[in-house]
Amino acid sequence: MPSVLHLLSTTADEQTSQLHRMLAQGLGAGFISTTLRIGTGGELRNFPAAILQLRHERADITYAWGITALTAAVLCGHRRIFFSPDRFAGPRALRWIRSLMGRADVTFVCPTFTQQRLAVQRGIDPARCHMIQPGVDFGRVNRRRDDVLRKKLGFAENDFILIAPGETTLAAGHEMAVWACGILNVLDPRYKLLLWGRGNRAELTANLANRLKQGDMVKQAEKILDHAIDFEALLPLADVCLATPAGAAPTLPIAIMMAAGVPIVSTVTYMLAELLEDRHTAMMVPTRSPRALVQRVLDLRENAGLQAKLIDTARAEAYEHFSMTRMLDGYRRII
Question: What CA–CA distance (Å, rounded) separates 329 from 268?
Fold first, then answer.
């Protein structure tokens, strides 16, 4: 029975953590999976400790989630390595990845066409660079209204809730969502913005509402609840998803929104263009402009027929392109 050793950082983003869990659990009884985490709180407390222990670890496949894990696996002489970046790998990171791939049998698995295209352009062998889109766990997607959670987070029954998808990071650009919601909130104080509360810019982004003197407008779910909550648990509260990435943000939260049938208003990036199409699966604006986002939200609310069409199309495409079965089949083809 093939053994798979998963290596990932304790600071890996939520998309990487979810994909790791899906793969470790989903490959089935034909594989034996073990996971070791590198970093504070992990089984391998730092990089030197990882090198010392991994020299004695041997598995048929080592799956390195992130560059730190890949570096450790290559230096320790692991025979067959699969690698996925735990955040978007730009030109500088790809130079190091290409160097490591020259020293070991490494298969690069990209979560987006944008990442795959850039990797190949930067010299990664196309035969060793595959694209497998992240899978959505549809069993965790629930749109049934949750009045209890709504009340706990301080929303009134008639509030219109915009949700900023995923973790709040620089790449996610949630500050733009605060600006857009701020304009809407002036027009109608029932407009509110929901943040998950994770990410290194969550507090900074929420404080922007205080500087706008609209402090009650933004809610951080995990901060208010004072405990961890799955992002999918927030879906029943969302009236519209406001996606405003400023860079290569993870795409899994958008795929989850599509699967849940939450109407999406979004700016345009190369990575989101792989998932969304204007007036087909989302309302999109060509530039990151709060006023343009506001107009799209208002347009969406005024056109119930268009909203229903976007929801139905987005949900159908999510089931077609982002199922766990499709993702796991992609891995089985290359393992």
Answer: 30
SS3 8: strand
For the structural domain made of 3-131, what CATH number should be given? 3.40.50.2000
Residue holding tokens 């003197």? 213
Q: How large is the average pLDDT for residues 190-206?
A: 96
Alpha-carbon distance of 330 to 109, in angstroms, equals 10
Q: Does domain 140-321 have CATH number 3.40.50.261?
A: no
Chain segment 40-70, per-residue pLDDT in tens: 999 999 999 999 999 988 899 999 999 999 9
Indicate the domain borders of the chain.
Answer: 3-131, 140-321
The domains spanning 3-131 and 140-321 adopt the same CATH topology: yes
Q: How do residues 305-334 score in pLDDT, each as one tens digit?
A: 999 999 999 999 999 999 999 999 999 899
Q: Categorize the per-residue pLDDT at 31 as very low, low, confident or very high, splitting at 50, 70 and 90.
A: confident
Which residue's structure tokens are 């860079």? 247
